[in-house]
Write a structure and sequence with these properties.
single chain; about 120 residues; alpha+beta; five-stranded antiparallel beta sheet; two-stranded antiparallel sheet; disordered N terminus
Length: about 120
């Protein structure tokens, strides 16, 4: 099962976030003119991961060519949720829940939005 919980709180996801940011903070990090991941996007993703409930499934962390951080919860090709964290704290998400598709934008301040938590639990 690709949905994992970290035994040390959220440290594994935080470590993965650091590795992604460290690898992707220079322009053209992907060899295809990607924008660098901005520190504000890194900080927003860090705060989001830290605000997830303890025992919550751990997302995999990645970077996008537009400089945003991606958090993904994957169970199968038809049950997955991807969340892009932008530097302004907006969470742009797209998910497949069997035949049901959901997408939208959530505002993130200091606590993980309840809608995001419910979407991950729906996987």
């Amino acid at each position: 099962n690709a949905l994992r919980s970290s035994t040390l709180g959220h440290q594994a996801a935080i470590d993965e976030l650091w590795d992604v940011w460290d690898d992707c903070q220079q322009p053209n990090w992907d060899g295809f003119n990607a924008l660098p991941v901005e520190q504000d996007a890194y900080q927003a993703a860090y705060r989001l991961i830290e605000s997830l409930p303890l025992g919550f499934p751990r997302p995999s962390v990645g970077a996008e060519p537009d400089g945003q951080i991606t958090l993904e919860w994957y169970r199968s090709p038809s049950r997955t949720l991807s969340v892009s964290v932008d530097p302004d704290g907006f969470l742009h998400y797209a998910g497949l829940f069997g035949a049901d598709k959901r997408y939208g934008t959530l505002t993130f301040f200091s606590a993980a939005p309840e809608e995001l938590i419910q979407l991950v639990r729906k996987l």
